[in-house]
Amino acid sequence: MAMNLRLRDDQTEALKLRAEEEGVSMHSILLRAVDDYLARTAHQTLVRKAAKEQTAKWAELLERLK
Predict the structure, then answer these.
(1) Rounded to two decimals, what is the model's pTM?
(2) Nearest 5 degrees, angle CA 51-CA 55-CA 60?
(3) 7: which of 11, 13, 44, 65 fits an S-S bond (Cβ 3.0–4.6 Å)?
(4) Dihedral Cα 2, 36, 12, 17, nearest 10 deg
């Protein structure tokens, strides 16, 4: 799927410089950034779900420990 991405001028310049420093394309850096974001937020979602489940499971004990 194709899409357009509009960056501010300062973002474009910083991305261009980073791509040149790394010897890769701006496109590859952006793809990596998207992959990193998706992996991080997926992990955060799993952690939140587990925390809610464990809080519910141990609610009585947690209440007694207050």
Answers:
(1) 0.65
(2) 170
(3) 11
(4) -130
